[in-house]
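User: Okay, second chain of the day. Same drill as before: sequence in, structure tokens out.
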Amino acid sequence: MIKENRINILKKLEDRNIIYQVTNKNNLYKILNEKKISLYCGFDLTADSLHIGHLIQLITLKYFQELGHKPIILLGGATSLIGDPSFKLKKRKINIIDNINLWFKKISLQINNFLDFNCGENSAIIINNYEWFNKMNVLFFLKKIGKYFYINQMINKDSIKKRMINNNTEGISFTEFSYNLLQSYDFAYLNKNFNVILQIGGSDQWGNIVSGIDLIKKIYKKKVFGITTNLIIKDDGTKFGKTETETIWLDHQKTNTYKFFQFWLNIPDSIVFNFLNMFTHYTSEIIDNFNKKKNNVKKNSPQYLLAEYMTNLVHGKDNLIISKKITNLLFYKKVHNFSENDFLILSQNIENLYLEDKNFNLQTILILSKFASSKSKASILIKSNSIYINNENISDISFIFTKYHKKFDHFTLLRKGKKNFCLIYWK
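Assistant: Same drill. Structure tokens below.
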């Protein structure tokens, strides 16, 4: 039974639409059927938190670990000083080593929530590639690693070619160009010292992974493998990344749990079942049953099922309960039925605006809340029936706040459109 589970892990990942590409699939199937392996995934330290674009890799590692394989997380303390140019239109911001060391600690704690670091032989481990690159001199790098790479092959990689021919960029620096060599050596180092035979990464890492496979074959005459996972794509077709806008972080201080819950709750119908398949452990029968139902009740929607699962996975049961309570307050409960404690819970989880208890006009408050950038735009929002005070629509540009609008003498719930909230606290 164990052998069957092992050989079917690739099929399982494919059925869940997680796998994008696999090198030498038949041989990898055979090896996974015969023995436990060590595999790794690398994350560069370009911010103090991982984001949802990293979840698929973590979930994939978890699948492998559950079947007895040993997952290794490589955090790129060294490669983060350079920056991966893969499919980036411009050079990454260079970070200082002190920041990278701090981010290593924070991200290590996040990863501890996903993998088991105390389960015997297949316990997960976290490694920093700064440990070996910091000790390496340039002559060794050029002589022992650089000799295996050929410029004509490297510039033909799609990720490099797009940077070189894009007229909106200044090209690519030698520093970034060498990133491919460093990541390839990471794989070789882990193969030699930890017997790692499989690397996984996002689909934009295919070129780097293949280079590492080729390097190991040339240096150690060994056959190793690579898997890439499907990227998480935003509505505009771009991937979720740390340097893009509207990033959904795993750190609750960067993206609070309510916003995290709402992100999954607002996944479009066109992709929600694919997300349920990719991100959750729900069976195909459960997902298919939801797909067949025509239910307009948001709490019984596939989006709600997804939001519950993901918030519990990343932030835990207690934060899920709070996120659901806030969602209920904002979208289902009448404001005049709010308790003072309800307002206090909201104040900790949505945007706040603190104001002196004076006569502010609504246009000014819309600017202060950043719902409008000018009085004229604030006026347009009000006239277009887009503004709500305590969930009551306000269309009067001369609106004046009264004691009636200040619940428990301090709180006013301001809303723009359907989903943008700000809690005003009157001092």
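The longest helix spans residues 302-331.

User: Thanks, on to the next one.
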